[in-house]
Design brief:
single chain, alpha+beta, 16 strands
Length: about 300
């Protein structure tokens, strides 16, 4: 099998730049109609691939099993495809605002810094990706705010785009204050194809919530720099439906550190393994979890 076999053309018009939104019309006591726009992540369309029959479903079906044209299957319908005793494997990674924009000393050249992981909290060392990489060399200083409080020095080249930064920030040695200040300058780490397709090429404040996995918990160490995209379509309503159907839930946490990820996922605890292995069927619904041994459907 060749990697090229997985290539496909995705039309730009089909790339979702924002979560699915729907309009709701409400009548007030005076009879006035008001329209509200509500974000409904679980109403995103879902395609169902049947392994045994090798068929694909995109539309809901009527009582006779015939597809209803125009009535797309939505993510919230996922509970209809599983039964009691099945287990959902989800990713509880919490994404942090990893994309920073700054300027290079002297030249004021615009640069992008993508935070990957914190190497040494005491020394304020971070493993990052930079763009454009050719302009960023060892010894350069990068400025991230207007008052020059958040400054970083490049101290090592790790890969063609990778650098090690030492942040020259000292608020009485308080690491929590430093992290809050650093993250306050960052943006949600949306995929490049989403950022590039947006008119202003930036993430919004709402993106940190809209693209966060619904199962996200407090980030371990430095959290993740990539969202669990499949579960970003889920909602609290979906969670309640799964509980009502007596489906098991197993979690793991993955820290995605680089664009190329080979060993990013791990099981958070032995309980996750036992609960998944003992289930009738296990269902993994994101790109990270399908690479772990306990997530393949049985």
């Amino acid at each position: 099998m060749k990697l090229s076999q997985f290539n496909f053309k995705l039309p730009e018009a089909q790339v979702a730049l924002y979560p699915h939104k729907t309009k709701r019309i409400v009548k007030t006591s005076t009879g006035e109609e008001r329209t509200f726009e509500v974000t409904r992540r679980d109403e995103a369309r879902m395609m169902v691939l049947h392994k045994k029959s090798e068929t694909i479903d995109m539309y809901r079906k009527d009582a006779n099993g015939n597809p209803i044209e125009g009535e797309f299957i939505e993510f919230k319908d996922i509970v209809n495809y599983f039964d009691e005793g099945d287990t959902f494997v989800f990713n509880n990674t919490k994404v942090f605002p990893a994309r920073l924009y700054g300027t290079k000393e002297k030249t004021d050249a615009k640069i992008e810094v993508f935070l990957l992981r914190e190497l040494n909290p005491e020394m304020r060392l971070w493993d990052v990706l930079v763009e454009p990489a050719r302009k960023i060399r060892i010894g350069n200083k990068l400025f991230f705010d207007d008052v020059n409080e958040m400054v970083a020095e490049v101290i090592d080249n790790t890969t063609s785009r990778g650098r090690t930064l030492r942040f020259l920030y000292d608020e009485d040695g308080n690491h929590d204050v430093f992290k809050r200040s650093l993250f306050a300058l960052g943006e949600a780490p949306l995929p490049r194809y989403v950022i590039d397709a947006r008119e202003d090429h930036h993430a919004t404040e709402d993106d940190m919530e809209d693209f966060q996995c619904v199962f996200a918990e407090v980030a371990r160490i430095s959290g993740s720099v990539s969202s669990s995209w499949a579960w970003a379509q889920s909602s609290s309503a979906c969670c309640q439906a799964r509980k009502a159907a007596a489906m098991g839930v197993s979690s793991f946490c993955s820290r995605l550190r680089r664009v190329s990820i080979s060993r990013s996922a791990y099981i958070a605890g032995s309980d996750s393994w036992r609960s998944t292995w003992s289930s009738r069927r296990a269902m993994a619904c994101n790109f990270s979890s399908i690479r772990t041994p306990y997530c393949s459907s049985r």
